[in-house]
Amino acid sequence: MALDMASTPMDLSIVIPALDERENLTRLIPALQELARSMHIAAQIVVVDGPSRDGTAEAATSLGAAVVKQREPGYGGALMAGFAAARAPFVITMDADLSHPAAFVRDLWARRNDAEILIASRYVGGGAATVGLVRRILSVILNSVYRLALSLPVRDLSSGFRLYRRDALLGLHLESRDFDVLEEILVLGYNQGWRILEIPFHYMPRASGVSHAKLIQFGRAYLRTLVKMRRLRNTSVPNSGLVGRRTKA
């Protein structure tokens, strides 16, 4: 029986941006539901639809997920719609393509009280990414440039697999609407003194379908807003050293 999301207290909201991901969601949503049952928590699964043309929204609804139509463009627009729909004190964001396995939600949940942002990180000790060599090199360079330019002691700034404290998110006024929203959240949070902790994670390629997040698109979005992010980083009160040490899960 589906939970009445409007009246049932939730422990965790899981926000999943999706565009033509019906096949993958039919595997991911049941896996998340089974995981939540095994963890004895009430989980709200929020699918933010692109909009899709393959029946993504209908499939997600039939499986018991809440479906939110994306109103603003880009990955940032999808996250904002998901955050607005989240009702639990903790919010996890993850991809719909099975590159972010449901099982790792347990690792994030176990550390939920350790930081305002937990990042499933490919680039700390114990982390890894099973991708092509060119993509890996470009991703490492991109993250290194941003880390150095913004003076953020975070190695995987572009990971979208994260857990947030919802009360912290409510205080943010986000302007980015593309993939660079991930860096904007980190900059704003770090400047406000949030604890940010990276947990080692092994990234795997999508299970099926075509990727909607091309690395070139990531790069253009990041480089286009790097100056803006640096200005934002330097015009707020610096963090007082609350970023969590890199640890193994």
Account of the 3D structure:
39% of the residues lie in helices and 16% in strands. It has helices at residues 22-39, 56-62, 74-85, 104-110, 133-150, 166-169, 181-191, 215-234; strands at residues 12-18, 43-49, 66-69, 90-93, 117-121, 128-129, 162-165, 196-200, 202-203. The strands form two sheets. It has a seven-stranded mixed beta sheet, sandwiched between helices. Strands 6-9 form a two-stranded parallel ribbon.
Mean pLDDT: 86
CATH architecture label name? Alpha-Beta Complex
**Spatial order of the strands forming the largest sheet:** 3-2-1-4-7-5-8
Oligomer: single chain
Number of strands: 9
CATH superfamily: Spore Coat Polysaccharide Biosynthesis Protein SpsA, Chain A
- Category from helices, strands and their pairing: alpha/beta
Work out the count of structural domains: 1
Uncertain segments of ≥5 residues (pLDDT<50)?
237-249
SS strand fraction: 15-25%
Write down the overall geometry.
globular
Largest sheet: number of strands, sense, barrel closure: 7 strands, mixed
